[in-house]
Amino acid sequence: MAELIRISKVGGRYLVFEVKDVATLRREHCICAVFVGTTPQNPNQNVFSGLPIELLAEEAKLLVDKGAAFIADDATSHLTPMDASTKQAYLQSLKTRRRIFQRAADEEKVELQKIGEKMKAASLAKKAASDSSSAADNSLFESSSAPRKTGPSLPGVSTLGRHITPTTSVDILADPQAHRVSIQTPRAYPLYKHLNAGGYYITPGIRFGADYSVYPGDPFRYHAHFMATSFEWDEEITVLDLVTGGRLGTGVKKGFLIGGEAPSEEAAQGAGKDRVRAFTIEWAAM
Fold first, then answer.
1. Is 60 exceeded by the pLDDT of residue 72?
2. Which positions are annotated as active-site residues?
3. Which DSSP helix (H) or strand (E) runs through 255?
4. pLDDT tops 60 at residue 155
5. Is the pLDDT of residue 182 over 50?
6. Could you give the CA distance from residue 9 to residue 15 in angstroms, rounded to a whole number?
7. For residue 167, what pLDDT is reported?
C-alpha cells in the first residue's frame, strides 16, 4: 500500500513539504499546485519559488476522497512535545544524510581531479610539441624546463564542513499522521473533480478571470486549452458574463468552459456518472 501524502494545514492553507510527495502528485494525480517557498538562507529571492507547494482546497479535498492523502493540523502537531527517542532518531537521520552527501561530494571531487589531470597532460603535450618546433636557440623568455610556480592546493572536500538544511520537519514528529482534520467541500469541487478525472492538469485561473486554467497535459509541455468557471446548476448566468468570458478566452486562444453539477434527484442529460455537465464557448470572430 502506498504511503499517504501528508498535507499540512497552516493558517487555512494546504501545504505539501516533501519533494517525493510533490513528484507523486504531479506524476500520478495530475496535480501541479503552486510553489510558494523561498530559497533557504536567501529569503529575498522572488524569481523562482520552491518548496512547499500550496494546494487548492479542491485539490486537497480530491486527494482525501481518493484515499491518497490526509490533512494534519500542523500547528498542533509541532506544539506536541518531542520525546527522547524521537529526538535521537531525528538527529541520527541528519547525521546519515550528511554522510551520504559527504560521500557524494568526495566522489565528485575525485572525478573532477581526473578530468583536470587529463586536461593538464593534454596542455603540456601541446606545449612540448610547440617548443620542439621552434627554431630559435636563444629566447627572451624563460626556458620551458624551468620549474613552474603552482598555487596552494585547495583543501579536499572531506576537510570542509558540510551542513544539511532539512526541507521538512516531519521527522521530528512522534506520529506524523496524528492531529488529522477534515475539509469542507469547496463550491467548485464537482467541476474540478470532473476535469481531473479526464486527465487534465488544473491551475488557478485568476489571471484570466476564471476559477481554473485547464491544460491537456503537464503545463511544462502544453499551453492551457480552457479557462473554466463553475456555476450552480440553477444559477442564473448573465449574458454579460458569457460575452466577457467568451471574448477573453478567444483573445488568449482558449475556450471559455462553464460547468456545474446536477442535483442528485435530477439526472442531467449528457452528464456522466458524476452528474457534471460542461460547455465550451468560443467566439467565432473578434
1. yes
2. 215, 223, 254
3. strand 255-261
4. no
5. yes
6. 6
7. 66
